[in-house]
Amino acid sequence: MPVMDGLEATRRIKADPKGEKTSVIILTASALDEERRSASQSGADDFLSKPCREDELFESIRVLLGVVFDHEEANADEQPAARTPAWNMEGLGRLPRQLLEELRDATESGNRKLLNQLTVQVRDAAGDGPSALVLQELADKYEFDALTRLLEEAYRR
User: Fold this and answer.
1) Cα–Cα distance for residue pair 93/102, rounded to 1 Å
2) Are 25 and 64 in contact (CB under 8 A)?
3) At what angle do helices 86-93 and 144-156 cross, to 10 degrees?
4) Side-chain-facing half-sphere of 22: CA atoms under 13 Å
5) SS3 label, residue 26
6) Is 89 within 8 Å of 157 (Cβ atoms)?
7) Which residues are bridge partners to 46 per DSSP?
């Protein structure tokens, strides 16, 4: 972050009476024990390392907030490509390699903002609304593993 790092932001949030009960999860590329200690000392409630699996993040949120997630289980035998109509897979396979790589990188890093922007590029620049719809649907459901596999398959085409 340009103005302050996440640890300082956490310290400030926790120091403010309005934010002291706010749950903070630190998500970082570092997995060093020193980083974990620093996060804990800053007042963070949990620490996750990138790449972060979505089930880890949801579990942390569940524990910290005491929420119960209501979600539909995907059929484990069904691959994402199998749930995607063939014409969508063909459309994804025709996308420029650079765009597929950017989509894959945004997915792997969990960058939803960039992923949304790239999905719009798929729809607008590539003229492929159905493929953009599939990408957006998976992103909206936080199915990043399925999205990664789908993009990998499209890249191989």
Assistant:
1) 14
2) yes
3) 70
4) 16
5) strand
6) yes
7) 25
User: What is the mean pLDDT for each group of 10 consecutive residues in the chain (157 residues)?
Assistant: 79 90 83 73 82 81 82 56 49 80 87 86 70 80 81 77
In the CATH hierarchy, which fold is given to the domain comprising 6-65?
Answer: Rossmann fold (3.40.50)
At residue 15, the pLDDT reads 92
What are the residue boundaries of the structural domains of the chain, listed by start?
6-65, 80-156
Is residue 119 classed exposed, middle or buried when 0-12, 13-18 and 19+ CB atoms within 10 A define those classes?
buried
| ω into 51 cis (within 30 of 0) | yes
Q: Would you give the distance in Å from CA 12 to the centre of its chain?
A: 26
Distance CA 71, CA 66 (A): 16
Angle between helices 129-140 and 86-93 (to 10 degrees): 100
Q: What angle do CA 109, 113, 114 make, to 5 degrees?
A: 65
The predicted pLDDT at position 82 comes to: 46
